[in-house]
């Protein structure tokens, strides 16, 4: 069975600092991995995804993530945080149940950005 | 493409009343998912459909919850009778069969049961 662990429910950074949000997964098959972002009072929006090919994936708003199979990780990074990056971030892994596809979400990490 | 459309955006109801939440998925998507989000429990998958057929409803909290998808462009989630502990944000999402496309979420319905 697939599962996702996000380390740190809350992360706080200063504006301009590096953003690092951690995600580790468990999967018995080659995984598809996703990061979603949720701004206050909005739905979840796809930030980036890894399916196959290049292990460094670039997404919207300057975010990127690297798939590391040996570490079963898919950490999300951004070189320089902006105030507008304050949101909740969810990591997800594809799962198969009874032959049907579904995503397994982590518990989320709330990112705060300070001036 | 208008995205996944949910209605209403906000719903306030009294305990014991019936509540119906609505969702219109993206045209052509064959999977539809209902999620509930609370501070305490995070994002929970309630039920999902494939080609209008319910596949897994193991996340539905209890018999007071029911969901239908009468056609490819419409789904409802009904709570009868509603209770204060049902207060949450309910999201609908849709996707194509191929998982690499990921899900597209609606803006959610914020339900408050008083």
What does this protein look like?
The complex is a heterodimer of chains A (115) and B (114). Chain A has strands at 3-7, 10-14, 19-26, 33-38, 44-50, 56-58, 64-68, 73-78, 87-97, 100-105, 109-114. In chain A, the strands form 2 sheets. In chain A, strands 2, 4, 5, 9, 10 and 11 form a 6-stranded mixed β-sheet that branches. A 5-stranded antiparallel β-sheet of chain A has the order 1-3-8-7-6, with no helix packed on it. In chain A, 40% of the residues are buried. With 115 residues, chain A is an all-beta fold. Chain A is globular, with a radius of gyration of 14 Å. The termini of chain A are far apart. In chain B, a hairpin with a 2-residue loop joins strand 7 and strand 8 (74-79). In chain B, the strands form 2 sheets. In chain B, strands 2, 4, 5, 6, 9, 10 and 11 form a 7-stranded mixed β-sheet that branches. Chain B has a 4-stranded antiparallel β-sheet with strand order 1-3-8-7, with no helix packed on it. The chains are: A mainly beta (115), B mainly beta (114). The interface between A and B is medium-sized, with 22 and 25 residues.
Write the layout of secondary structure elements.
The complex is a heterodimer of chains A (115) and B (114).
Chain A: E1 3-7, E2 10-14, E3 19-26, E4 33-38, E5 44-50, E6 56-58, E7 64-68, E8 73-78, E9 87-97, E10 100-105, E11 109-114
Parallel strand pairs in A: 2-11
Antiparallel strand pairs in A: 1-3, 3-8, 4-5, 4-9, 6-7, 7-8, 9-10, 9-11
Chain B: E1 5-7, E2 10-13, E3 19-24, E4 31-38, E5 42-50, E6 53-56, E7 65-71, E8 74-79, E9 88-95, E10 104-105, E11 109-113
Parallel strand pairs in B: 2-11
Antiparallel strand pairs in B: 1-3, 3-8, 4-5, 4-9, 5-6, 7-8, 9-10, 9-11
């Amino acid at each position: 069975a697939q599962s996702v662990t996000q380390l740190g429910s809350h992360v706080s950074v200063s504006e301009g600092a590096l953003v690092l949000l951690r995600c580790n997964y468990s999967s018995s098959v080659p995984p598809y991995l996703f990061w979603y972002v949720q701004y206050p009072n909005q739905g979840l929006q796809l930030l980036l995804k890894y399916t196959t090919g290049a292990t460094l994936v670039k997404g919207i708003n300057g975010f990127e993530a690297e798939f590391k199979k040996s570490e079963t990780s898919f950490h999300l990074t951004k070189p320089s945080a902006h105030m507008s990056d304050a949101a909740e971030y969810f990591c997800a892994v594809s799962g198969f149940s009874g032959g049907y596809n579904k995503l397994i979400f982590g518990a989320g990490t709330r990112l705060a950005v300070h001036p | 493409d208008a995205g996944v459309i949910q209605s209403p955006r906000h719903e306030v109801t009294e305990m014991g009343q019936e509540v119906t939440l609505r969702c219109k998925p993206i045209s052509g998507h064959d999977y539809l998912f209902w999620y509930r989000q609370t501070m305490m429990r995070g994002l929970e998958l309630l039920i999902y459909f494939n080609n209008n057929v319910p596949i897994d409803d193991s996340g539905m909290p209890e018999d007071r919850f029911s969901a239908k998808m009468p056609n490819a462009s419409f789904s409802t989630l009904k709570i009868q009778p509603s209770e204060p502990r049902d207060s949450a944000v309910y999201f609908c999402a849709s996707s194509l069969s191929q998982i690499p496309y990921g899900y597209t979420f609606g803006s959610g319905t914020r339900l408050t049961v008083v």
